[in-house]
Amino acid sequence: KAVLSQIEEKEDMYHCYVTVDKEGALAQAAAVQKKIDEGFESPLAGVPVAIKDNMCTEGLLTTCSSKILGNFVPTYSSEAVLNLKRAGAVILGKTNMDEFAMGSTTETSAFGATKNPWNTKHVPGGSSGGSAAAVAAKECFYALGSDTGGSIRQPASFCGVVGLKPTYGTVSRYGLIAYGSSLDQIGPLCKDVTDCATIMEVISSYDPKDSTSVKRADTDFTSALKDDVKGMRIGLPKDYFGQGLDPEVKSAVQKAAKVLKEKGALVEEFDLGLLEYAIPTYYTIASAEASSNLERFDGIKYGYRTESYEGLHNMYKKSRSEGFGPEVKRRIMLGSFVLSSGYYDAYYLKALKAKALIKKAFDEAFARYDVILGPVAPTTAPGLGESLSDPIKMYLGDIYTISINLAGLPGLSMPCGLDTRGLPIGLQLIGDCFQEKKLIQTAYAYE
Ligand code: GLN
């Protein structure tokens, strides 16, 4: 009830949600209370959560913030949502996002932009901007987001909350509407590192319904909540502190590294390399996968269908032309181009080779370091409207987050200060595959 009244009070100002399920949330809460009275125990029992609107929720509108799914009510729930429900979570509603998770500001949503609760003239980041803003505005206790190239970590950073993109395969993608399937991963956005570890324990699971799901025996993430980084080897990639990084962000992140050093971590600079290839590689692969994944939205099986048409092909064409927004169309065109015969070898195949090299560079780094530390984004939250006119500039803002998805690694974003305008600055901790616990331990010690 407290969180619903907060939504009532603040939602007009911030627009974090696409759908608020007030009646449903109250009914779920009453049902969980009954179970608790009968002895049910879980750290998340009765705690209200917001879900990014690209995760299917049975009986509840799931739009991907797109007109093409504007009327889509799934008949099943995603596995991550089911894991939360089994733990007694109360689903409050669905949060706003960039259309199909394509964007870095939540402004490509077909339902209007979300505002940053720290300063409503600024974006909350994206694509999970609704989830991050809802946590920052206390319109939920925690939220789920998805991260294909930074979409959990970057909005967490812009909104001053904690976000974790787990190792690829840790959280089931079943029921997550696909953007770049080889990169997509669900994770928490929350107030602090303790919440992050607690939520991760609940949402991580092996799921045969997701063919890339991994069986892990080490998902006792809360065991890593230790205020101790003595001997932790932390590497600072010089390339992450070079040209293009805002000086205020740089100094806040360097200060955070110093705090960890004072606590006993071994902090050292090193050359990671290949950073210049991250953006072209990511946008080639992500767009290629998106163009294929979005073929299913054809106006037939579900979602939006154009009102008048002549014949099947015209119906496809009009439904897709009217249903998708400009950023999504740009990616579909780019993706179709790089996959087309004659260009496949020159672009898509080359991007896959670059991806393998990026992974190798991280493998070599993790032979020497437990954790890599750097900024989440080159700047703090841009002003509303600044990014929409210049997509390339927006893509450049993903420079520090996208390699982590290409390599399948876990990455954690947490607050490390404010800039002179009072906007949050984010710190990113990157780990080797399956080393979330080292990230959680380092983050907890810093926090
Ligand atoms: N900004 C990136 C993109 O537009 C990342 C988005 C994401 O992680 N979903 O692709």
UniProtKB/TrEMBL annotation:
<comment type="similarity">
    <text>Belongs to the amidase family. GatA subfamily.</text>
</comment>
<dbReference type="GO" id="GO:0030956">
    <property type="term" value="C:glutamyl-tRNA(Gln) amidotransferase complex"/>
</dbReference>
<dbReference type="InterPro" id="IPR020556">
    <property type="entry name" value="Amidase_CS"/>
</dbReference>
<keyword id="KW-0436">Ligase</keyword>
<dbReference type="InterPro" id="IPR023631">
    <property type="entry name" value="Amidase_dom"/>
</dbReference>
<dbReference type="GO" id="GO:0005524">
    <property type="term" value="F:ATP binding"/>
</dbReference>
<feature type="active site" description="Charge relay system">
    <location>
        <position position="52"/>
    </location>
</feature>
<dbReference type="GO" id="GO:0016740">
    <property type="term" value="F:transferase activity"/>
</dbReference>
<feature type="active site" description="Acyl-ester intermediate">
    <location>
        <position position="151"/>
    </location>
</feature>
<protein>
    <recommendedName>
        <fullName>Glutamyl-tRNA(Gln) amidotransferase subunit A</fullName>
        <ecNumber>6.3.5.7</ecNumber>
    </recommendedName>
</protein>
<comment type="function">
    <text>Allows the formation of correctly charged Gln-tRNA(Gln) through the transamidation of misacylated Glu-tRNA(Gln) in organisms which lack glutaminyl-tRNA synthetase. The reaction takes place in the presence of glutamine and ATP through an activated gamma-phospho-Glu-tRNA(Gln).</text>
</comment>
<keyword id="KW-0648">Protein biosynthesis</keyword>
<feature type="domain" description="Amidase">
    <location>
        <begin position="1"/>
        <end position="439"/>
    </location>
</feature>
<dbReference type="GO" id="GO:0050567">
    <property type="term" value="F:glutaminyl-tRNA synthase (glutamine-hydrolyzing) activity"/>
</dbReference>
<keyword id="KW-0067">ATP-binding</keyword>
<comment type="subunit">
    <text>Heterotrimer of A, B and C subunits.</text>
</comment>
<dbReference type="InterPro" id="IPR000120">
    <property type="entry name" value="Amidase"/>
</dbReference>
<dbReference type="InterPro" id="IPR036928">
    <property type="entry name" value="AS_sf"/>
</dbReference>
<dbReference type="GO" id="GO:0006412">
    <property type="term" value="P:translation"/>
</dbReference>
<dbReference type="Pfam" id="PF01425">
    <property type="entry name" value="Amidase"/>
</dbReference>
<feature type="active site" description="Charge relay system">
    <location>
        <position position="127"/>
    </location>
</feature>
<keyword id="KW-0808">Transferase</keyword>
<keyword id="KW-0547">Nucleotide-binding</keyword>
<dbReference type="InterPro" id="IPR004412">
    <property type="entry name" value="GatA"/>
</dbReference>
